[in-house]
Structure prediction request, 301 residues.
Amino acid sequence: MSCFILTSWGLRITIKLGTKGKICLTCIQRSTMKDFSQSRIAAYENCPQHYKLRYLDRIKPPGSKEGIEAFLGQRVHEALEKLYKELLLSKENSQDELLAYYRERWQANWYDNIAIRKKGHTRKYYFETGLRALKNYWKHYQPFDQARTLSTEFAMEFKVGDFKIKGYIDRLSRSAEGVYEIHDYRTSGFLPNQEKLDSDLQLALYQIGIKAMFPDVKDVLLVWHYLLHDKEMTSVRTEAQLKDMKKQVISLIRDIERDDQFKPRESNLCDWCEYPAYCPAKKLDIQITEKTEKVDVRLKK
Ligand code: SF4
Prediction:
């Protein structure tokens, strides 16, 4: 079987012709999906099969639970969004107000199905980790006049080559005339080294977007806040690096568009994957484990 791509007046129709003349759903979804985001591109780089299951087949993860790390990250982001949004209206939140808001959002959003996967860790531990991160942030940056906030949760849409890229910046600021800052909050326990940040795709991609959207941009500073470590890390990109990155992104998106196999790429990320039951590389392992468990149960009887 093979896929045919028909292009006419800018409309692309992809049909997979099989023995029964069936239309391939994956190909149709792919042909209508023209928007990309950094997270989609990163997902493909990590594992093409995972990308397909999630973004093309749109399979709802079976019995998946939200992890507490993501829950914590969301609540901390909300608190910092409130802090800077209200600063735009000239209201500075006291530390108590900020922490009270975090507490309120945590309680209002909590539900029993949230997964705590790390052994020995409790809900209280994660709650207090977020609380401590916010306390440290408040102390570190108060009175929050390092730069002028332009927007929080800034929605971006820009083109790289023929492709539309969408994304959100946690906070966009300006520290001097024409000097923009792209801030990203991280709540992971992992602290990367400078080399990793200097080659990070996400914020550099947003830099391309900011340059396209604001004609007065002279310089852009990329800023990561590793909140659990109370550590700020920065990076800058040259024009030549951005040019190279555009090429890299276009080539990656073309790879995604051309791919008709979406091979599984096994790695330690498989431990966190929501789709092992659908993954050709893992299905067999699951069946073997299930059979072995059944045999064990029978032997015990
Ligand atoms: S289990 Fe691993 S190889 Fe399979 S889809 Fe998930 S990440 Fe990819």
Summary: DSSP finds ten helices and eight strands in the chain. Residues 47, 49-50, 264-266, 269-270, 273, 275-276, 279, 281-282 surround iron/sulfur cluster (CB under 6 Å).
